[in-house]
Structures are given as structure tokens and as C-alpha cells.
Amino acid sequence: MPTVPEPRALLESLRSGAPLPEFSPDAVAQARSLANDVAGASASTVEALPAPLIEALLEGAVLAGSAPLAEALSQSHVKPVAKAAKKALYRLRSRGIAVAEAPRPPPEPPRAAEPAEVLPALITPLTGEGQRALLLGRFLRGGGIESTQAILSDELGVLELTLVDITRGSYRRRIKETRDEGLAVEISQEEGAALLAEAAALNLRSRTPFPPDLELALRHQGVQPATSGPTVPPPEPEDVRGVLEGHTLHETPEISQWLPPESELRKVVQKVDEIAASPLALSGPQREEQTLQAVRALTRAFFTPELRQLYGLRLWRMADYFERSGRGPIARVARAEARRLFHGPEEPFSRFAERLFEKLLQLAGPQTGALPPPGAPRPPAPPAEPPGKRSPGGLILP
């Protein structure tokens, strides 16, 4: 196989017309036509030639002190061609020939920032005592999550709190299992931290001691005890309709378990006993009606302005819970009752409040012989729950 001459010898052969059998006649003819005028050679034409002929023509450009051909070929996508052209440019610079700076490649478009991983929180519905469970998480540098579980009371603040480091998979599994069981709804991390701060403020106002690690949890979540208490928006014109439907809130699994304090049950039992022992000759329906009216009077006496606000706020929070769990119609009723309980007016009186006490009458009935209100379904008594119960996902429940 014949040896290819060096670039300068090959350039001289092109210019002298010496035979070059190692290349195709067409390539040789094209290169000969360019060899005597490399300054005017087209880069695209040269780039189509065999590599040795390209190097020979670049040699001619260096000898002629002409930079345009080398400058153009230095941008070639064919790596050997670009490399030879850059070598020629270096030699031209060394000879003091002005060479244009190679255009810089356009900057890469900025990569879109990857969305930050969202760490959800969980909140359970309120119990009849105004308690609910909160689950919060915080990313740790080592890749795990600091899990905060708390029992919140809307009267006393944070009752229990635990901090534990777990894996991200364990945290997300706990979220999914508890949510899928219908025991809690997802809220944002910011909303969860705000609830913790709100509850901590109640600890201060009610003089309830902080549980261990509460101050640490507040600091890690970047919040402090709230300086203002929660409130409920003012009533709207359509709320009257919702108030008249307020008894339907007790048909939900969550509020069906709500009852007034035990002291109110004793008052109901006493009132039922008084009516049963009355010397008045009353028929069964008359006794039922008198009992119902007496219990409704107890209801109005119980719902002082302070307790109206307390239960109004509870229903406002339950409305949010219903909305997040896909129950818009019952959320509307809860909001209507919440606004009117919190702010007034008192008439028409809250059907939610009346039904709350009617359930007491039904519980008192088997003990005293009293009958339930006409047409009202008899709900089962709330089952006793062991202390420290947990969701399937491990969330401590109130």
C-alpha cells in the first residue's frame, strides 16, 4: 500500500501536476484547482476531499499566511478536519497572522429546576371533645424525615407530642395508609405548622404545660405560638337554609359520635324523670313533646355565647375536613351552621345544636322509659375506644 506523502510534499505534487494515484482522479482534480488559490477556496468544497488533501491545502494556507480557510474548517463537525484546521490556526498565530477568535458555543439553556419534593401532612377530624391528631414531617440532611405527631385540643392546646426520625418511605406509607382508611385528610406542610402554632398558643392561654419536645417541634417547623386566635367569617344570606339542615351533620360518621358533656346527660336524665313522675295525666305523645321541649330548653341554656363560638369554630374546621374529603354539600351545611353559631343571630335556632341534645335524650331513654323524638333515628352509642389508639398507618389518634 503506497505511503501518503506529508502535507507539504503533497501540496507541491498538487501544484506541479505530479501523478497521485492513491487518490481518485476527481478528488485530485478538485484539489489541484484549489491548491494555487487557497485563500479563495470554499470550506465546504475542501471539507468534501480526502483528509490528506485537506491537510495539504491547509498547509498551503499557512504558507500563504491566509487564515479564512483554517478559520472556517475549525468549526467542522468532522473531528479530524477541525483538529487539522486548529493546528493550522496555531501556526498562523505563531507567525503573527491575525486570526479571528473562534465563536463560542451558545450557552446551554438553563435547566428547569426540579420541583421540590412535597412533604404532605395529615389532620384527623375533630372528636366531640374538640381533639384531633396532626402528623407533620421535616426533611433531614441525612435523607430521612423527622416525624411529628401531636394530639391537639381546641380548648387546651397540644396535649401530646412525639418526635421520631423515620425513613421517607415509612413516612409516605404512614400517610397513604391513614388517608386510604378515611381516618384523615392531607393538608400542606405550611397548614400543619400553622395548626401546631395555633394549638401552642392555646397551651399558653389555658396554662396547659407544654408537652416534651413541643418547643423543639415549633422551632424545627419555623413557627412560634400564634399571636391571634382563629375565627370564622360572618354569616351569609344563604346560611339560614343551611341552619335548618344542621341536624344532617349528625348523620356523618364523624359528627355522629359527638355528644355534649356528661353533666348535660345528667340534666337530661333528671328532666326526663321529672316529666315521667309528673302527676299530670299526659298521653304518650304529649309526654314525648313535653320532654322534647324541655331538652331543647336545656340546649339553649347550654349554648352560651362562648360555647356558640367554640362549636362554631369546630364546625368550621369540620367543613374544611368535609371539603377535602370530597363531601361538598355537607361542607356547605357545616359552614352555614358555623357562621351563625359563631356570630349569631340565634333565630332560627341551630338544628345542629338541637340534634346534639336529642341524641342525649335517646341515650337517656332506655334508662328512664322516655321515648326518642318523633321520627328521629336511634343512633348507636359511641363505642368505647382504648386510650392511645392508632390508625393502620401508625398515626396516634385522639
Automatic annotation (TrEMBL):
Residues 364-398 are annotated as: Disordered. Residues 371-386 have a biased composition (Pro residues). It comes from the Bacteria. This is Conserved uncharacterized protein. It comes from Stigmatella aurantiaca (strain DW4/3-1).
